[in-house]
Prior knowledge:
This protein folds into three domains: 14-77, Arc Repressor Mutant, subunit A (Orthogonal Bundle); 113-209 and 346-374, Rossmann fold; 211-342, 3-Layer(aba) Sandwich (Rossmann fold), CATH 3.40.50.2300. It is elongated, with a radius of gyration of 26 Å. 36% of the residues lie in helices and 16% in strands. It has helices at 14-27, 40-47, 51-63, 130-144, 162-168, 181-190, 211-224, 240-255, 272-284, 299-311, 345-360, and strands at residues 67-70, 74-77, 113-119, 149-155, 172-176, 193-197, 205-209, 230-233, 265-266, 293-296, 321-323, 340-342, 370-373, 376-378. It is α/β, with parallel strands linked by helices and 387 residues long. Helix 7 (211-224) packs across helix 8 (240-255). The strands form four sheets. It has a six-stranded parallel beta sheet with strand order 4-3-5-6-7-13, sandwiched between helices. The chain has a four-stranded parallel beta sheet with strand order 9-8-10-11. A two-stranded antiparallel sheet has the order 1-2.
Amino acid sequence: METLNIDRTSKQPVFKQIYDILIAEMKAGLYSAGGKLPSEKELCTRFDVERNTVRKALQILVDERRIARIPGIGTRIMSPSGEGPAKIPENTEERFLSPADPQLPETDQAGRIILLITQIDYLHSAGGESFHYKLIHRFEERFSRMGYNLLFKPVGKNGTVAETIRSAMPQGIIFDSFNPDASYRESARFGLACVSVNHYTPLFTSIVSNNFDGAYQVAKRLIEAGHKKIAFILGKSSHQTNMERLSGIRTLYTALDLYLRPKYLIPSDWTFTSGTKAAEKILAMKSSDRPTAVFAFNDDLAYGCYSVLQRHGLSVPDDISIVGFDKSDRYSGMFPPISTVDVNLNAIVDYAFWYLTGCLSRQVPESCAKIQIDVAFRDNGTIRNIL
Length: 387
């Protein structure tokens, strides 16, 4: 049989041309009942198209019950002619499950790659943010248990992901926190299932912590404990997490008719080293202005500040109270635990895993929802009541 290919000049959609070609080849006996179709990767190479285009063609064949997609095996020919119902092999039924369920639907693509994209700044040397290391580790554990390969891709501020997507041919993409807009737009053009965690984007479903409420509650707790001079060690000004946490504080101060003094808003880049520099700024203040409490926007900052204050002979919380955010265990054994906000990282990972695998198994519709995870304050005794 003559090898068929798509016509780039045709007005017919490419995916429909691929569907027609596969039908013609099935009817010509190129694929027998019970045999396998070429993999998605092979079809993409043959027709020189993106994976999503091939998937659209294959989905029509699935809907017509000509083929069945079997986890761990591949795409089987069930009814080449399309006559009569296809017999689906046993144990391939997919179930709709909740994020808490230990077993979730599988898909059948060779490689089973999930791409996780994060900014390289989050991971620079030992000063990288512990939140992201934990997030990556949890995702790797979660997906590997289901037979997926998690491919980790750090990108720079102006980095792009199109080439990585083309070479890896992932089934889905996870975006960790803030990423360049170009990365979101490029991924959207590939038509893959995507989810963003710790950062909201209108292009995909986003799973985020309730940063506003967490910061609001910490500031309220400190004020109720009698602290009037509170230093806030902020994150990067352009990041949503920073803006949301700062908004929670501003809202509380406005409600209580309090003035939020700019000198107590100390910018940072989220890292331990930046926390040490913030502490030096606090120590350089006049004794009459020095804050009685510090609220750092993540635990890396909080422990960086703690280390400098401790080195200068200040006691926590007797001399100064400290609160962090994110509930990191990175510094256990180095410092006593501090009071912090637990962002419920397990829930973030579980919901992202549930959504992405649900999209891949077509049990969950792709959407652009914003899922907000509740946070919880963990009091470890580093807030002193000075009333």
